[in-house]
Design a protein that fits this description.
CATH architecture of the largest domain: Orthogonal Bundle
Number of domains: 3
Radius of gyration: 27 Å
Strand content: 5-15%
Strand order of the largest sheet: 1-3-2
Number of strands: 5
Largest sheet: 3 strands, antiparallel
Structural class: mainly alpha
Order of helices and strands: HHEHHEEHHHHHHHEEH
CATH topology of the largest domain: Arc Repressor Mutant, subunit A
Length: 266
């Protein structure tokens, strides 16, 4: 048995942050969390994690995507910020209780008051646990601190690369900019560049304050699909129509950039 078999648990916090997990995902995450509180950070290995979560490899591959958002890889192992915070608090309380035993019964009442005061103070500043990634999460522009604000940014940003560096870049940003950042992500996600997969690295986007870029307007009506070979007879009979979105209006109709150049040459 662990020398420290207990940990503090706040059901309200847990349900608020894990409401979108399924029954199986909740069970797997709780088992991983219990192991974390018993032995520390988790191994960054799917086989080991599946064993700890009591899942088959196939089951783990299904529950991993949502559970993974609760952890951050560091020095080859997986860390959970909330678990790390609670473990440190647990160590502090244990040290205080050991000190109480050495003092004796005379000071027990005073020490108990000190412990209760310490726990109340720590409870008032306990951090929020990271939320699972979900594109449908409702944003809260009045989030309490930078940690929560980053979580909302990370959920909204479509490129999930190098979360640790992105979090570091976020520390330089005023959390009050969150509403503008979320709105810029929403608008830029509809641009041709982002729809084609050319999305800036999240750290680069934050460092460049790209939410302040002039946002594209939607006044121009969309041109629709490229007209190249639209009827199967215009340019190359029997060949399929070009699947690209038209970007250029020519005298012969709307074409994508590639075929617009060929039309203009004819």
């Amino acid at each position: 048995m662990s020398d420290s078999p207990w940990f503090r648990f706040y059901p309200g916090d847990y349900f608020a942050k894990t409401g979108r997990l399924t029954t199986i995902e909740n069970g797997a995450y709780c088992l991983l969390m219990f192991h974390y509180y018993t032995t520390g950070p988790l191994p960054n290995n799917d086989d080991d994690l599946a064993t700890l979560a009591k899942c088959s490899k196939k089951q783990w591959s299904r529950v991993k995507p949502r559970i993974w958002s609760y952890f951050m890889e560091e020095n080859g192992v997986l860390h959970n910020s909330r678990c790390d915070e609670e473990i440190e608090r647990r160590k502090y309380v244990i040290e205080q209780k050991k000190a109480a035993g050495s003092i004796g019964g005379k000071a027990k009442h005073t020490l108990q008051q000190t412990l209760e005061h310490t726990l109340q103070r720590q409870s008032s500043i306990r951090p929020s646990e990271p939320e699972p990634e979900s594109s449908t999460t409702t944003s809260n522009p009045l989030c309490a601190n930078a940690h929560d604000a980053f979580d909302e940014f990370w959920q909204a940003y479509p490129s999930k690369k190098d979360k640790k560096k992105a979090r570091k870049a976020w520390t330089k940003i005023n959390p009050e900019n969150l509403p503008a950042i979320l709105e810029a992500i929403k608008v830029q996600s509809e641009t041709d560049q982002w729809l084609r997969g050319f999305i800036p690295h999240p750290t680069t986007w934050l460092n460049g304050e790209r939410w302040q870029d002039e946002q594209p307007t939607t006044e121009t009506a969309p041109l629709g699909q490229c007209w190249w070979n639209r009827n199967g007879t215009r340019e190359m009979a029997g060949q399929p129509q070009c699947p690209e979105i038209a970007t250029t209006e020519t005298a012969k109709g709307p074409y994508c950039k590639h075929h617009a150049a060929r039309i203009n040459d004819t």
